[in-house]
Amino acid sequence: MTENNWDVIVIGAGAVGENVADRAVQGGLSVVLVESELVGGECSYWACMPSKALIRSGLALRAVEKLPGAAEAVTGGINVEALLARRNSFTSNWDDAGQVKWVKKAGIGLERGHARLAGEKKVTVTADDGTVTTLTANHAVVVATGSDPKLPNIPGLIDAKPWTPREATSVKVVPESFAIIGGGVVGVEMATAYLDLGAEVTLFARSGLLNGQEDFAGEMVEKALKERGVTIVRTSPTRVERTADGVVIETPEGSFTASEILIATGRAARTNDIGLETVGLTPGDWIRVDDTMLVPDTDWLYAVGDVNHRALLTHQGKYQARAAGDVIAARAKGETVDDAPWGAHVATADHGAVPQVTFSDPEVASVGVMSHDAEKQGIDAQVVDYNIGWVAGASLQADGYEGQARLVIDRERQVIIGATFVGQDVAELLHSATIAIVGEVPIARLWHAVPSYPTISEVWLRLLETIGRP
């Protein structure tokens, strides 16, 4: 057994852990990352990057097909081999050498192995060869272990060896037919991708698609998927079995067979075997934190990213990480902590200003409070809708453009608290809405934010005209 002493120990070297470490190092502290898998984590190798690489080619192809003049130049379909090769380039062929090089260049230490908390400010790391290293922290330990797929309790499912998102995004041989259980973001995005890869897709979504979003978002995506040939089953499987002919999925509506089955029914905290019990927390639970990412009743333990269950999105986890790294450095040096709302050391945006894009076809981009949530929160909200297809820039973007925009407005404060856009290429509209919400820009002032013509952004003017002049 060997020992090491650091100012900060970060358990988990994914994008979130890397950001914590980088900010703390910039604040003058010594930091070590501990990672049992690939440095760079889920987003780099099995989630954000490879999944979007799988989706992008198909979106581009269909965009061209909607443009006379360009459409005639398209003489073939998706080249699966080339698409998968491009996907591989974004994962560096699942080699983390480049990420390790960045860690070293940033002045961050790295320990390979499985980390477990071993009491206050202490972490043990067990390497593949069984060697145990004990790390001690002068100031903080940060848990950034992320989340794992959550498997539903369906008889036979475990024995059927279902795919998780990892297998789906790292696919080498595309199955002829593909079943997906779950109608959330992962289910919708993988249905979109596997259609383009040439698979026959069946999607099981008992409660419909994209629950939690505005209703029209799931409805428009469902309509588009059905038109492209996806079978959508509005019931839950009652049994799953892998046979010589493939995976058989039994439901109240009948039996379905697919070559492979993907489980996309949510996430669970990756905290089962990281020693939470040694510091009075429950293994397997999400870790509750305050807005500086500090675990209550401690002055040294932090949790960032998926593991705190505030917003299971990479960009939001990195935002939390920046705040946490900065506040750890400030506290270590006895500097003033700016923990007021929207201060430098807090993740205020987690509360009502979280942006998210579903890379489906059409895309769904949303931020802030949905209309149904505003009502539940007792907010006197005005809901404003506009057909994006009526905007000149959208009609230029694609013939027959179909899209929808919605703003949710706090009548009392006269500011936007939520925005949703559905349609081709709407992801790039989202940051303007995010800025308006975070900045609490008055509706009256937004009239002076003039959108360029002819762009899809002109929908902002049309939405304001629908609201009417103050």
UniProtKB/TrEMBL annotation:
NAD(+) binds at residues 182-189, 266. The keyword Transcription regulation does not apply. Its cofactor is FAD. Residues 354-460 form the Pyridine nucleotide-disulphide oxidoreductase dimerisation domain. Signal peptide: none annotated. Belongs to the class-I pyridine nucleotide-disulfide oxidoreductase family. PANTHER family: DIHYDROLIPOYL DEHYDROGENASE, MITOCHONDRIAL, DISULFIDE OXIDOREDUCTASE. This is Dihydrolipoamide dehydrogenase. It comes from Salinibacterium amurskyense. The lineage of its organism: Bacteria, Bacillati, Actinomycetota, Actinomycetes, Micrococcales.
